[in-house]
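# nightly structure sweep
# worker-07 picked up a monomer target from the shared queue
# config: single-sequence mode, recycle default, output format = structure tokens
# input follows
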Amino acid sequence: MVNKNTMFSHHNAYLRAPCLLLMFLVICLGIEARTIMVGKRPPSDFNRIQAAIDVAKHGDTIIVAPGRYRESILIKKKNINIQGAGKDKTYLEFDGPNLVVYVESVKKTVISNMTIAYTGVGKRSTTWFFNSEATLQNCKVTGGFYAGVYVTANSKVVIHNNVVKENQLTGLNASNSELRITENLISKNGQQGILLKSCRNSVIRGNIISKNNKDGIDVEGIGEDLQILHNTIVGNRSKGISTDNQAIIENNIIVFNGIGIEIDLKGKSSTVLGVSHNNVWRNSHHDYSKIKKPLTDLSVDPIFINEQLNDYKLRVGSPMIGLASDGSDLGAFQSRKKQTAEDIPSKPNSRQTSQIIVSNTPKPISFQDNKKTTQSTDASPEVLTKASEKPAGGLETVKLETPIFLIDTLRKQPYFIEVAQTFKLKTSKELNKVQAKPYGAKYDPKTRIFEWIPLRHQIGQVTVTFTGISSHSVQLFVWKHNLPPRISHINGKTVNRDFDKNGKLMPIKFNVREGEETHLKFSAEGIPAEQLKYTFISIPIGANADGDTITWRPSLKTVQMIRQGNQNIAEFPVLVSVSNGSEADAIDLILIVQESKSKLPTLKKK
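# output follows
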């Protein structure tokens, strides 16, 4: 695309005439995106969808009127949109040897508002997206043999607010692609509801995944950055969620399945799990398979409105309300919006009124959005009523005041501060100056208030020293809610994780002396040490592990040295892992034993 500012700058004056001519032709000749009408009666342009696709150009929109269209359609290398009148009004059906919808090599296509059904007896999927960037939304997809929705060949597909049900094998089957699967009903399929193979950067969020004849969600093969968030996964015959790779699995309701969550890492012990804040309850065989129940997970009745009638919204008083890691409700349905400081009710005698904002405009979904996309939700009647009660003169906002701690010189334990939260501490008259304050902190000597909003890179313990007539040091511990542990230091030295040219994490080398007692103390960022458990695998003979520390005195009796340059050395690999009960981190450590200087040969002077 040509930048207008550049095109008409004095450096490009010679381009003005042809560009103005081109603009004149576009306006006069009407070279612009068109709307093509398809219907069974006039004033439609065509009575078949494929006929409209054949004449459509990039950017055109095909509007399909209510009716039943018995045909197979192909969209290839055309960035067009096809819009029906609604999934209960526009029906695209086919019973022949082809796919009902096949999309290949497109960069921007939206198919919406219709039922797409394979009605034949052949082994065909209903829809197939091949090497394409497309959106499927507000549709019903049914009847496919292999899959209702099939996505392959490095496609990027948004699948939003659809009903994908009663397909013979899989509801949604994708491989080697990137997907946003949001707010769909995926139900009563012959095998998996969702099957992903080697997919990257994908999000499964806000879906109802129920009563599929095998797994609700099955993830296989090497993938990256998979997030399974805020889903309600109910009544699937085998597993609710099954994966053999790392994934963030948060804020889901997983009940009445065969197995709730199964994670089979197949020996990949260094994989970091991100399973937290789920409600996993009454799965007939096991709630968890091949993993332990995370400390942050629940196992209680979610109290649906009526699961017998497939109504999985939450009743008033459900324990799921407000328990998600982001303060919203667990599962796919939100009974209310996330509470913020502006939603705190005012005091009875206060003039201030809490503000509740309800938006009826859904947020567009795209691959440029943040990975953890905010889910648009329907507001309850109670919230809508409150939102409409606007006081005269406009709304006022109640702001929650940050508490101010008074300095306690007898306090030994640290103050715990969450990342991005404001911390305030008021000092005494004797302590009215601050030394070595952390980055971003400020101190007002008039009010004697120390204020700090820590950032993520500042996670861990921080010491702040106040001076004046006397001196006192305050310990602060910065943490991040739901942050997996990460081994960050050995004996106070930062652990640098480097990768080789193939992207493989390189082992961390640490030098120790033969004959000298060595203490290796490990620490992890983000979580207090008392909540962590360290495991050491393949420690050298004679070494002892106690909590977060390895103690070892290498000896020539147990160490076989090799010559390296002018020095004898030996290498010992040790696997160090740390866990908080639900998530883990690990590093490969190589202890390099150096022979003591007293035993090295003396070089003779020539």
